[in-house]
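Work Package 3 committed the consortium to producing structural models of liganded targets before the mid-term review. Because experimental data for this complex are still outstanding, the team generated a predictive model from sequence and the ligand definition alone, so that downstream docking and mutagenesis planning could proceed in parallel. The input record is reproduced below exactly as it was submitted to the modelling pipeline, together with the SMILES string for nicotinamide-adenine-dinucleotide.
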Amino acid sequence: MRILHLGVGAVGEVIARTVATEDAVTNVVLADIDAQRVAEVAGKIGSKAVRLPLDVTDTAALRRALADADFVVNALVPRFNTGIMRLCLETGTSYLDMAGDNDMDDEIALDEQFRQAGLTALVFFGIDPGASDVFARCLYDQFDTVESLTVLDGDNATVDGYEIAASFSPATMIEEVAASPPGFVDGVMTERESMSAANSFEFDFPAPVGRLRVWNTDHEESVLMPRYLAGKGLRNANFFIALDERFMELVRVVHTLRLDSRQPIEFGGGRFAPLDFIASRLPRAVDLAGKMHGHVCVGALAEGTLGGKPARRYMYQVTAHDQAFAHMGVQGTGYQTGLSAACAVIMWVQGHVQEKGVLAPERVDPQPYLDLMGRHGVPWQVVDLPA
Ligand SMILES: NC(=O)c1ccc[n+]([C@@H]2O[C@H](COP(=O)([O-])OP(=O)(O)OC[C@H]3O[C@@H](n4cnc5c(N)ncnc54)[C@H](O)[C@@H]3O)[C@@H](O)[C@H]2O)c1
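The resulting structure, written out as tokens with the ligand in place, is given here.
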């Protein structure tokens, strides 16, 4: 089987290296605009690696690469997603991506076309969204009734050398915090006020993460969980992430000054997007490799009834940043994301996903995926919290 990897940045590298360990995978094609990056990652993979310096905006070259592949892993920025998916329909290539940007509905709208083409698209399949949605689905299957599903992420890391840092793309992180978060509240899809203290609380993450203040932010799960997991009485579905006060302070100022925009502005004889400029002042995820110390936790909390009694169960994955660096040379979030996505690819390679169409993580049988997570270095755990 030939797997095409579009984008071999921090996350793409982890996916490609893990997918290459599967016997059924004969070639991993490493395609990136950065030829040096392609060479670096190829050197770590060995004989299965095929080097393909490629700018994905070159549609003819991209079409040729897709036509040669059985499956494509899209580890680029989400604005490329739907364009690549449409090309997959032409070339007969199954597909995976890890985030939805604003075009989540556009991707899901291709469901029927993928089904008719006999292809599978695994969409929004990183750690969160991705494993977090699978955890929610797994708990949903266990419970008799589910009133509430909440994704709760926390990171207690210290960062060497940077006062303010985001563990993934700083521009995306600022956008997610500054935007009005969608939430499923009392059975109605609602847009909340961003960065509101009313939508923030302290949550006791399992050890060794501990108690952290979490904030409601704009994330795919708040939309996906009510769309696919509403059948057992769901009334509330939300996403919360722990953010430190320095980062919140930065986003408040940036948002107030309307610098959280990707629309280019003219200033001082130059033209630039303010958000890109702000993000350029912060470390990139790759700059943080080896500099984060602590643990990151991603999980889903289900509240409802089990065996006729009230129940609250949290299913989660914890990664140590130092261990992630030792194994793959990345920080914990890149490791969790890459391995979670790789498990979804391997699940497809091994034939556990027979269904065709555009499949959000909630639509996939959770068990084979959860087994693979345990085997590939991102084991999950479950804890029952006081009801
Ligand atoms: N769901 C999750 O849990 C989660 C978490 C983190 C990141 N992500 C997703 O993973 C994606 C990748 O993250 P990352 O940290 O690896 O980013 P990154 O910036 O390290 O990697 C992106 C790669 O794309 C390449 N690229 C950019 N433009 C290109 C083009 N025109 N043609 C070919 N290659 C091009 C870059 O050279 C780079 O190597 C993110 O954009 C995000 O969507 C998802």
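Reviewers should note the following from the model. Residues 2-122 form a domain with the Rossmann fold fold (CATH 3.40.50.720). These observations will guide the Year 2 experiments.
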